[in-house]
Specification:
Order of helices and strands: HHHHHHHHHHHHHHHHHHHHHHHHHHH
Strand content: under 5%
CATH architecture of the domain at 10-425: Up-down Bundle
Number of helices: 27
CATH topology of the domain at 10-425: Sodium/glucose cotransporter
CATH superfamily of the domain at 10-425: Sodium/glucose cotransporter
Shape: globular
Largest sheet: none
Helix content: over 70%
Radius of gyration: 24 Å
Number of strands: 0
Length: 606
């Protein structure tokens, strides 16, 4: 590993210790509240506002693997790297918030996998429920927690010359103890504090880089002179093998299709926990909106300094991802180059905050789904509250051990991210079908859940070996799209070849969820006609999601333009954000009022 000689002084250590002390203090503060019930421990009493859950989820997404991975990608590409996360999450989060968040919260589930018992019923639903819980906990949460350990080691290894074992021994026991005592409400509260720390830390590094190179205009000119104008361009250049326009469109399509239909995906169960703990349906929608804005501001502020870094280490741009030129090392180098005592400690505290946010979210949520959807559902239906909490804590310990194995075995953080996105994307179209099409049945669900990941893995082999595609980014999005198309064909064929689910189960689900889409026969069986305000609600929801996405894109591109001295375009983008944002809020309030109108009469209600 590339190393640096960095002086971490007494002031830096004091700042780090002080931030950890605050986290522990919050954990102990919520200890009594968390022990009262499993709902308190795992859902914070279901009384959390959407903005708090949104900030918490954004912090959870900011794993410690993100700084080295995303800064490395910025170094390898340029300012247009923002399209990497805009395409993956931008439209998807708005679809989730508008078309799904309120409906999930309406069901008042304890865990997301419970949905399958409610929607389908019977033995196959039980199989899908248990598999989904185990997959999100023991695959998704383990992978992201392991990637977080690897990410913080890539930084700590450079700054402190730690071995991976040292990083593990310092980070994991502390985080486990903190989650063990605090419960979900403590996790959310500390996530908010940690998000503030991360934002301030990112601003400090971004300002330090600008100061070093003489300001935004000077930085932009130097970058264009050395690497060409595409490095400071906001749009991916045609033909870029890592982030071309086709890749952007492919990732946007691959991650938006099916978004929101399952909130306990292969990527981990933390998303569902944040929806189900919201205090209202509208808060569930705003959870997603707040997540997107907070997360993207964190990411743009984090990655912009890497543009200055490649002026000092140009090989990390021109020779990125070739042997001996790992761009993921640029973040650690920048910390040593641009930050002095005190500032370095604050940034390191932000890094520790990022890994704690992700690991704590995954541990608490995984303990919840396994305790409820495996232990209670299969083995002890009358489990006491304390038993569920105890089982959840045991699951947390198991996930920590498995995550350590992932950290030891994995080499590339970006590789882990691409793989997890791909394997979870194959079945995504089925997630929309189960909400919007009454005919989609338990057999189609089983085919998508079990067949999707296998199809994705086969597609990876095809594109890597048979077609000899070498770039992991290209292999990733080609495999994801192939998996989506083939899995969609599979579940449609299986659904149409088998009988519909029991009408009484479908009626019960419809009355509780009041879903949008194609539920004509079920709605008729309930004795109801679709209300005028709900006609074309799906189309209106997608248009509204596109509007919100466009507003956020304008904000992020504007911030990037300002950083490299393009003040005119930057100001124009911010103005577009303000105008579209105001229009979006007004339109969303009207839309939410429409979808909140009960469909079934009181006589039809269970």
């Amino acid at each position: 590993m590339d190393t640096l000689t960095v002086g971490v002084g007494t002031l830096d250590i004091f700042i780090i210790v002080a931030s950890l002390a605050v986290v522990l203090g919050v954990g102990f503060y919520y200890y009594k509240f968390a022990q009262k019930s499993s709902e308190n421990y795992f859902l914070g009493g279901r009384g959390l506002p959407g903005w708090a859950n949104g900030v918490s989820y954004a912090a959870a997404c900011m794993n410690s693997d993100v700084p080295p991975a995303y800064c490395g990608m910025m170094a390898a590409t340029g300012l247009y790297l923002s399209w990497w996360y805009l395409s993956r999450f931008g439209l998807a989060f708005f679809i989730c918030g508008i078309l799904f968040g309120p409906f999930w919260r309406r069901l008042r589930l304890f865990t997301a996998p419970e949905y399958y018992s409610l929607r389908y019923g019977g033995g196959i639903a039980s199989v899908v429920r248990v598999w989904t819980a185990c997959r999100s906990a023991f695959i998704g949460a383990v992978a992201w927690t392991g990637a977080g350990i690897l990410g913080i080691h890539k930084i700590a290894g450079q700054l402190f010359h730690w071995k991976l074992s040292t990083t593990i021994l310092i980070v994991i026991p502390f985080v486990f103890f903190y989650v063990y005592i605090s419960g979900y409400k403590g996790v959310v509260s500390t996530d908010i504090i940690q998000s503030v720390i991360m934002i301030v830390a990112n601003i400090m590094l971004a300002v330090a880089v600008l100061d070093y190179f003489g300001g935004p205009v000077a930085l932009g000119r130097k970058l264009a002179a050395v690497f060409g104008p595409s490095v400071v361009g906001s749009i991916p250049p045609p033909g870029d093998e890592r982030l071309g326009l086709m890749a952007v469109l492919a990732w946007m399509l691959g991650t938006s299709i099916g978004a929101g239909g399952d909130i306990s995906p292969a990527g981990g169960p933390a998303e569902g926990q944040r929806i189900l703990s919201c205090k209202s349906e509208k808060d569930a929608a705003w959870m997603y909106f707040t997540t997107e804005i907070t997360l993207f501001i964190l990411l743009i502020l984090l990655t912009l300094p890497a543009l200055g870094g490649i002026l000092l280490w140009p090989d990390l741009h021109t020779l990125a991802y070739t042997p001996g030129h790992d761009p993921e090392l640029i973040y650690g180098r920048m910390l040593g180059q641009f930050l002095g005592p005190g500032l370095l400690g604050f940034v390191l505290a932000g890094l520790i905050a990022s890994v704690m946010s992700t690991v704590s979210a995954n541990l608490n949520a995984s303990g919840q789904v396994v305790a409820s959807d495996v232990y209670r559902f299969l083995f002890n239906k009358k489990a006491a509250e304390k038993q569920l909490i105890k089982v959840g804590r045991i699951v947390m310990a198991v996930i920590c051990v498995l995550a350590i194995i992932v950290a030891v075995k994995a080499n590339s953080i970006v590789g882990v991210a691409v793989f997890m996105l791909g394997i979870s994307s194959a079945e995504l179209s089925a997630n929309w079908a189960q909400w919007w099409w009454w005919r989609f049945n338990r057999y189609g669900r089983l085919a998508a859940t079990l067949g999707g990941p296998l199809i994705y893995l086969a597609a990876q082999v095809f594109w890597t070996k048979i077609m000899k595609v070498k770039s992991m980014f290209t292999v990733g999005y080609l495999s994801a799209l192939t998996g989506i198309v083939l899995t969609t064909g599979l579940w449609i064929a299986v659904t149409l070849a088998t009988k519909p689910d029991d009408m009484e189960i479908l009626k019960s689900f419809y009355r509780k969820a009041r879903p949008l889409g194609f539920w004509g026969p079920v709605r008729k069986a309930c004795g109801q006609e679709v209300l005028p305000e709900l006609r074309h609600a799906l189309v209106k929801g997608f248009l509204l999601a596109a509007l919100g996405f466009a507003a956020v894109v304008a904000l992020i591109l504007g911030i990037g333009d300002f950083y490299v001295g393009k003040f005119g375009p930057g100001a124009a983008m911010v103005a577009v954000f303000l105008a579209l944002g105001a229009f979006f809020i007004r339109a969303f309030n009207r839309y939410f009022a429409a979808i909140s109108t009960p469909v079934c009469s009181e006589a039809d209600s269970p």
